[in-house]
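Dear colleague,

As promised, here are the two records you asked about, laid out in our usual form so they can be pasted straight into your sheet.

NAME FIELD: protein one
SEQUENCE, THEN STRUCTURE:
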Amino acid sequence: MITIRTIAFDDLPDLARLYEDLINRKTEYTAMVDTFNAIKNNDQYIILGAFYEEKLVGSLMGVICYDLAGDCKPFMVIENVIVSTEARRQGIGRKLMLAIEELARGRGCYYLIFVSGGHRKEAHLLYEALGFKDEQVEGFRKHL
């Protein structure tokens, strides 16, 4: 049984290992702890984990952003979506995305936005099945 819950401090070592699969390099653990401590009490940040028998097998982060345009409703940026290699194709990514969408709706967000690497074709099929393609957009990212 998969459970979805907020990532806690004790989950950080496992989260760092998941992120290695996501970004193909080691996460600087001390910086991760410092950043986690800086955002853990900020309700604009939501970091969810998917757990199978208490083992972290997936995660994502949502960041609620204020908007000054139109009705001035917030929107959510989704980042760091990852499911462990051994746990893929079991509906975990879907559960994470639906959970963050529900939280975004509850916070009054009027849309979700994220970018995904062009090579993640299997993940793109999931995103499309969840309704993320009814508006054609281009994503841009510049690493600094």
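NAME FIELD: protein two
SEQUENCE, THEN STRUCTURE:
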Amino acid sequence: MTDTARRRVRTAILISGAGSNMAALIEASRAADAPFEVAVVISNKPDASGLTVAAALDVPVMAVDHRLFGKDREAHERAIDAVLMDHGVEVVALAGYMRLLTPWLVGRWNGLMLNIHPSLLPKYPGLDTHARALAAGDEEAGCTVHLVDEGVDEGPVLDQEAVPVLPFDTPETLAQRVLTAEHRLYPRALAAFCRGLH
């Protein structure tokens, strides 16, 4: 096996909160055959608890506080992009990153930025996915990993995992089961994507 075949794709994870999907990706990156490594975790919120989790796992962390940039979203994203460049990042994984991205950053990472969404897209883009699935009487819900484009949760689907809707589900119980599926799906989808880059 050549060095090229063994090389791991340097991946950044962007978070805004606790980072449970981030933790699943970091854990998956530790596997001997993982095709990606987590080069840095970045949050727009300095107090995001996921930063503490990542640091405890010996992953470099960086906070780029969006509040310091006022309403200039692109300036904030340019600061994030500078961190990505400093860490030699090749792929960006959004994991509970709660900022709408500008066309500048989406274009900068076109085809190299992934997101996970808690519905079976194209159903229920945006928020309140579980309540919407229950209100529609759906028999299954689930999660989707997709490439990020300028639309909201509209980019090309890379992989999905379905979860059955149970008779007495609430948005909260369904959300918990979907989140468990997300922790399986995201590492699998990111690994497949990174293998395809070699």
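A couple of things worth noting about protein two: The longest strand covers residues 36-43. Residues 9-197 form a domain with the Rossmann fold fold (CATH 3.40.50.170).

Best,
R.
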